[in-house]
Amino acid sequence: MNVAVVGFAQAPCRVRPDVTTSGVEMLVPIFAEVFAATGLTKADIGFWCSGSSDYLAGRAFSFVQAVDAIGAVPPAMESHVEMDAAWALYEAWVKVLTGEAEIALAYGFGKSSGAQLRRVLALQLDPYLVAPLWPDSVSVAALQARLGLDAGRWTEKDMAEVAARSRSAAVSNPAAQVSGPVAAAELLERPYVAEPLRAHDCAPVGDGAAVVVIASAARARELCPRPAWITGFAHRIDSGSLGARDLLAVPSAAGAARAAGAERYRAASGVASVDVAPVEIAELHAPFSHQEILLREALGLGDGVRVNPSGGALCGNPMFAAGLARIGMAARSVMAGGAGRALGHATSGPALQQNLVCVLSGSGEAS
Amino acid sequence: MDHPLRAPLEIEFDYTRSLGPVLSEFMTGLRDRRILGARGADGRVHAPPFEYDPVTAEPPGALTEVGSEGTVVSWSWMPEPLDGQPLPGAFAWALIRLDGADTAMLHAVDAGPGIDAASVMRTGLRVRARWAEDRVGSIRDIACFEPCSAPVAGAAFAGAGRAAESGGAVAMTVTPVRLSYMHTASPGESAYLRGLAERRLLAQRCGVCGQVYIPPRGTCPADGVPTREEVELPETGTVTTFCVVNVGYPGQRVTPPYVAAAVLLDGADIAFQHLVLGCPPDEVRMGLRVRAVWDASSGGISHFAPSGEPDAAYETYARSL
Hints:
The structure holds 2 protein chains of 2 kinds. Chain A is of the alpha/beta class. Helices cover 33% and strands 20% of the residues of chain A. Chain A contains 13 helices and 12 strands. Chain A has helices at 24-38, 54-57, 63-66, 85-97, 117-120, 137-150, 156-169, 184-188, 217-223, 251-259, 262-270, 289-298, 322-335; strands spanning 3-10, 47-51, 78-81, 103-111, 192-194, 197-198, 207-216, 228-237, 281-283, 306-307, 341-348, 354-361. In chain A, strand 9, helix 12 and strand 10 (306-307) form a beta-alpha-beta unit. The radius of gyration of chain A is 19 Å and the shape is globular. The relative contact order of chain B is 0.12. Chain B is mainly beta. Chain B has 2 helices and 18 strands. In chain B, strands 7-6-5-8-9 form a 5-stranded antiparallel sheet, with no helix packed on it. In chain B, strands 16-15-14-17-18 form a 5-stranded antiparallel sheet, with no helix packed on it. Chain B folds into 3 domains: 14-177, no CATH class; 186-233, no CATH class; 235-321, no CATH class.
């Protein structure tokens, strides 16, 4: 059965001291936006699934209050993942594939600025051997960046160029938190935050939310003139032991890409006999500049692929929504006719531990 | 509209975890200044040890001791340590491959004092464990690592005092967690809290279904639309249901037994929870009419007490149960 993305909306990524950690204030307007674009109402949604985290909110079961934004009377079929909402979309996709829902909505929200994010994220690490040391997320990413520098995989200039290109691209994205043309050479003159990382190498801390609506083939075309058909969707995870896995290999990203049909894109970039067109746009969830370089290689993206025309996570990384927003932006490029095929990627955990790939197409062939 | 109320929210709790056989042996080793690793099916020695072989998923055989010296595989610089991190001044995070191991351990390296400390750090640097003086069986029994070129302090000598170690196996580990947030109340909650300070009870009504919510939710949970109409409610209401609290707990402010009840304020469509005091617990009942008793010092509601009115008819609150 074919399933397509038919709607996407996101809240602008900003530091918002005025909003609560329940996400409701950020979600209500974007639900209204996606309903207006598709002509749907809440009664049409057969399954809802959210991604968020109690550790950002500082209280238990914080996602329950977000259900107010749904309007869950009469009761709605609803679920939640304590992960980026890209994984909520995966659950929603399975619900539609299995025929339990015709139309499903995934949403993610995070008030990343409620506490010191890089310190809160230490609690996602091994609780016996690592978390008691409180290694923050920026420092852990910096260890990965250093490995690549030492191995000659990239230079600090390469990393700055990723940031500069992202910021220039983000000028056209009103949801971006950071944007504007800047020269890589200028970025390299700025101080280290966590050597070898500078501020531009790290995603800004921002609050936001995103929503994606998917529908079965029977409903998709009536909701959207050019649905973004999901031709492949997969996720994989690597070992949680930072010192035991090869931090420069990202096998979970490569595995997810393969399972989602990326072998065909790899072939498409080099070999003549392929049955599908290559992916034209890739929205990668790379919260650190060097991770975009790692992901390009792991996903087998050739030079012809436009990476992060939205500016990517380096220009706005609302926790638990940014991965879903990458899929939403990739889908939007297909729905608007700008791309025939696009890829959305999401990551979770330290140093690209867990990865998800969603491949979207303007034509409805299944994977 | 007034700005939302904000306040610091400090959360502290301990994670108390049992260790299981492998980590128990590893932590017991740390207490005794020994670092243990596990040999995998592929021949690689993992230090710290795995609990299940990443290739075969089998538990490891006998653990093997690795060196307390090793080589920096990668490092990053922490100029201003965050709360809870191993060292108070600037230090390096490092992946350290201990002698005899094939995997790396994440820990801190004290590169020494001074603003040039970072210049000591490099990939390939030889480092050794600096043991904590008080060791309990925790990854923090290694206070940090330090360059092998640094002078050896008394407590840092890996072999010192080993024979003096004693005690049974470490079976549990406690990790204290402290997190600091700036909590923001929603606009509706802020209006409600400001109202309490003036002894006013401010609710909100949904423009679609007409239900009145107190405290205000900002969004109607039935319709998913913002609730903007403010409604002031009286300080009287009805107990819809209740329980008698008979157990004590840390921080308890009222001596058991006492009553926690769902109170439906007159004019509201959902009940909220509060204390019902001012009468023996066994006199509290469904339908009991109550009135707010204000706390002169805090400005909020201290509790509810019986108002003396006749009980409310069941039909008047049945739909709010």
